Inverse folding.
């Protein structure tokens, strides 16, 4: 029982098409996974940078501005008085 040459051409064409599609699909999946991995790594780095900036600002805030109320020390006899910050705060209050 011999198959015709047309059936063989069709069969091998389908096989070749399937191989091509499989290669293309695998490449697409791999590139999507790689992009996702790069995106996750980038987002992690962004969050680490934001945390580092927050920690740096906490570390470098002058002691004068670390009052319990979070405001400016305004007592005239206080040795930690920051006159510039006090005047800036008063000007901001007047502008409101």
């Amino acid at each position: 029982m011999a198959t015709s040459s047309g059936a063989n051409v069709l069969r091998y064409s389908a096989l070749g098409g399937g191989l091509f599609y499989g290669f293309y699909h695998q490449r697409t999946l791999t590139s999507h996974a790689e992009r996702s991995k790069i995106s996750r790594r980038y987002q992690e780095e962004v969050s680490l940078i934001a945390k580092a900036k927050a920690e740096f600002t906490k570390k470098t805030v002058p002691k004068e501005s670390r009052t319990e109320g979070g405001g400016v020390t305004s007592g005239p006899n206080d040795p930690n008085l920051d006159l510039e910050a006090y005047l800036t705060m008063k000007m901001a209050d007047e502008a409101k």
Remarks:
- The mean pLDDT is 84.
